[in-house]
Structures are given as C-alpha cells and as structure tokens.
Design a protein that fits this description.
single chain; about 60 residues; mainly alpha
C-alpha cells in the first residue's frame, strides 16, 4: 500500500527531527519562507512563457 521513500513512519521521523533542530517556535517562519521560495521558483519557471520576445529569441537560437 505505502511503497517508496515517503512512508508514514518516515514522514513522522522527519517531522520529529525538524522539530528537534528548529524548535516549534521557528516552524511557522520556516514554512513561510519555504512557501515563498517555492512560489518565486514557479514564477521564474513560468516567466519566459509570459514574455513573447524572449521566447521567440530562444526559438530562433534552437532553430525551431
């Protein structure tokens, strides 16, 4: 049923280790910064699609 790397017991052990390292007071701040990083990463990935000039230059270089 639960195969692979992220089994429920593994996730529980990871959570306990994170609590020991950062403490319960730092977890909201850590979560917020992680969410911000993921959001900016997704924005950077999708940014060339929004700017048609850059995409056309990339296609010219690639020969498409």
């Amino acid at each position: 049923m639960f195969e692979g790397l992220f089994q429920p017991m593994h996730l529980l052990v990871i959570l306990v280790i994170v609590l020991i390292i950062f403490g319960p007071g730092k977890l909201p701040e850590l979560g917020k910064s992680l969410g911000h990083a993921i959001k900016s990463f997704k924005k950077a990935i999708n940014e060339p699609e929004k700017n048609p000039d850059e995409t056309s230059e990339i296609k010219k270089i690639e020969g498409k």
